[in-house]
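Q: what does this look like with D-gluconic acid bound?
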Amino acid sequence: TKKRSFPPTFMFGVASSAYQIEGAWDEDGKGESIWDRFVHEDPERIADGYNGDVASDSYHLWRRDVEMLRELGVHFYRFSISWSRVMPTGLSNSINEAGFAYYDNLIDELLKYKIMPMVTLYHFDLPQYLQDLGGWINPLSSEWFEDYAAEVFKRYAHKVPFWITINQPKSICMDGYESNVLAPAVNSKTVGGYECTKNVLLAHAKAYRIYQTLYKTEHQGNVGISIELNWYDPVKNNTENAAAVARARAFQIDLYMHPIFSETGNFPNLVREIVARKSKEQGFTSSRLPNLTAEEIKLIRGSADFVGMNHYTSFLVQNSKKQYESPSLDDDIGVELSYRSEWKPSKSSWLKNTPYGIYRACIHVNINYNYPPMIVTEHGWSTGTGLGDKSRADNLRHYLNSLLLAMEDGTKLKGYAAWSLMDNVEWTAGTSERFGLYQVDFNSPTKNRTARLSALVYKNIIKTREVNLEW
Ligand code: GCO
């Protein structure tokens, strides 16, 4: 069989996010975020009660974190900045130097060991002060974010070669504003999620444009956005399901991709048509999906140097005949999701081992968006505790092999980040689902980190640039 290997320029990394690892939720002047509020308001929201107050304690253990990155031999580390740590209210007139000092240290430590920082500006943790003003529903939100991004670029543009503006607009908006799965749990079924989507995309685009105007020429960094790109296939092929799959992909993927990466910009036609028609039936005077002005379309279109792909699993789709609450996103999409029984389950109910899906998601992007540069900014697998995580190692090897096939078929993939460097707070699942290459001992005050089998497997892949599917 033919030996495939990752090209010499291909970058391997690992990813994390501030709320999930840092802890120190109110230390050294940090402001409250929507996640702090969400978990303190009702501790039952977290499956095992372990929230981000202390998390993996990376606020204190960052030196050890960088040591682990060196052990793995990664080329880059994707982490996020906690907005309310550096700007307690979220507004640019409130700067917390102690908060910035944490990131100064982390970034300098990474650079000292030639590990490239990939900084995510926003990974779910909006300053609560801004939420009190409406959060991502407030039309000013894209300007708040623009000011925040400008401040962070000003400090780090000369040190950080890769930027992710926003992590997973779909989760932010549909889980945080349309439903109550994630903070701030606004749960508005009318316009919340769609209004948020518009504002988040504008926020992303404004940050991108600032970097282009002020820093691109001098520092040549790349700015992208991380989009959920899970995969959707029909349960079984028939006309109804073909239409259902088209809706699933349009609402779950292309609603976020199309405005940025297509030639025409704007939300996908299919989504616009469906939401406009339903809104009319529901008695709204205009579509629940906001119209983008020509100027907004232009601002957002082309506002990324690469696609950040977050991919975890695949779903099977069938047309749904259920009566959903109306208006709602579920009602707009009208599909039911399922899995094949052969798909190996992880610890998380939504995540199954389907390596072919990452290949298909890459091809979807290539065909619909003309082969853009891509970086997998997240992919991972959950287990319980224990160091012998063979299922994670298997999942990693097979997904990386699918990526090699996708590259052979033209995907311009530049890098890959495994989720996650270490166990962390898996949002409302707390620590009941573990995603780490390194295990974290949450019961101990020292939060010891220990390499799992998968860390050793990944280290070897990075070193050889080859994936061995046989053991
Ligand atoms: C994200 C993800 C991560 C999760 C991971 C596993 O939005 O980037 O939610 O933060 O921990 O996807 O569920």
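The longest strand covers residues 412-419. The first helix runs from residue 18 to 21.
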